[in-house]
Write a structure and sequence with these properties.
This protein has about 260 residues and is an alpha/beta fold. The chain folds into 2 domains: about 10-205, 2-enoyl-CoA Hydratase, Chain A, domain 1 (Alpha-Beta Complex); about 210-255, Lyase 2-enoyl-coa Hydratase, Chain  A, domain 2 (Orthogonal Bundle). It is about 50% helix and about 15% strand. The two termini are about 20 Å apart.
Length: about 260
Amino acid sequence: MRTDYQNLLVKQDGGVVTLTMNRPEVLNAFNDTMLEALTGAVEEAARDESVRCVVITGAGRAFGSGQDLKSLSAARETHAVARVSEHLQKYHRLVLAIRNMPKPVIAAVRGVAAGISCNIALACDLRVATEDARFIEAFARIALVPDGGGGYFLPRLIGVGKAMEMSMLADEVSGPEAERIGLVNKCVPAAEFEATVNALAQRLANGPTRAYALIKELIYTSAESDLQTSLQLEGELQDNAFETEDHRNAVQAFLEKRKPEYKGR
C-alpha cells in the first residue's frame, strides 16, 4: 500500500489497513486533497491481495466534521465548481469504492461525524463508535439535503421515521443512542475503543475474505430485490462460495475438530 498520501495516514498491520483522515486542526473536514487521497487509498486497498480488512477513521478528537465549506465556497467563487452535483461525483466515487470493496470495511468513529463524514461512515459495512461520538446529519442546518448517500443509507439502517428526524432536525445522535437505533454496531468507552476496533479488524482479516465479499454482494443486492431474485442470487453466490479454498479447508477442519485457518481464497 502506498503511504505518501497528503492529509491521509496509511498503516498496515498484517491483513488490516487503517486509513486515517488527517486534518485534525479542522476536525478532518474534507477538502479535495483529502477526498482524493482517501478515494485512491480505498481503491488501492481493494486491489491489494495482502489487504483483507480496511478501517477508516479520523486523526485527533473527531472522525470528521463534513465538507470544508471554506474550500467549497472558494471553488464556487472561482467557478472551479459549476454545480454542486459535479462536486458530489467525487464523493460518490468514494462511496461506491467502499460498498464495492470485496473485503470488510469498518468505520471507527470517535468524536463528531457530521454531514458527509457521517455518511462516509454509514457507507462502511460495520461501525464502531465511542460513547462520546456524535452523529449529525447537519445538512438542514445550512439548508441542504443529505448527500454522499445519506438519503440511501439512513432509512435502510434506522427506518424512514428516524431517518427523517435526523435529516430534518439535524440534531446530534450520541454514540449510545446510535447503537440503540442501529446506526452503529457497537459503542464502547473511549478507553476500550482502539482495542475493540483492532480486535474486530483482525478477526475479519483472519476470516474467509472471499466469502465476506459474496456476503456483501448478497446483503446489499437483496436490500433492493424481491424474494425470488434474492433466492436466485443466493444460489449463485453459494455456488461460488462452495468452490473456495476457504470452504474446503473449513469443512476439513470441522471434520477434524480443529479451528480452521482461512487464506482468503
